[in-house]
């Protein structure tokens, strides 16, 4: 079953359906992006002697699913902002660049666009808060001879 979400895009539901005659269930709840075997293979590539708990495996799977879900949601919003019904690589790329500073090679231009964030420090903030004082308002020269 599919429905339109709040962004106007079609999404499938994760509900399970029960067969009336057999009593078996089928659905998308059992499907994950990574299974525990894939997580273990990735860890063995990093360190063949490392062992992790099942809770850590579950947490890594959950983090991967949340990453993909947030990326897809933001990419759909970018496509909708462009007034398009199709998500393109530039929609995904924009989200990954701006959110995670992540550049995926092979998509778009080879030279990533650099942008600077405005950085402020405490001294600059304090100087901006103080009122501008002119040197001509009721000031006496400090180097005057008496």
UniProtKB/TrEMBL annotation:
What domain of life is recorded for the organism?
Answer: Eukaryota
Q: Name one Pfam family in it.
A: TFIID_20kDa
What GO terms describe the biological role, i.e. biological process, of this protein? RNA polymerase II preinitiation complex assembly
Subcellular location per the Swiss-Prot or TrEMBL entry: Nucleus
The record, for SUPFAM superfamilies, names: Histone-fold
List UniProt keywords, sorted A-Z: Nucleus, Transcription, Transcription regulation
GO MF annotation, one? protein heterodimerization activity
Could you state one GO cellular component term attached to this entry? transcription factor TFIID complex
> Domain Transcription initiation factor TFIID subunit: where?
36-102
Q: Which InterPro entries does the UniProt entry name for this protein?
A: Histone-fold (IPR009072), TAF12 (IPR037794), TFIID_TAF12_dom (IPR003228)
Location of region: Disordered: 1-29
Transmembrane parts of this sequence: none
Membership in a protein family: Belongs to the TAF12 family.
Mind telling me what this protein is named?
Answer: Transcription initiation factor TFIID subunit 12
Q: Which organism is it from?
A: Rotaria sordida
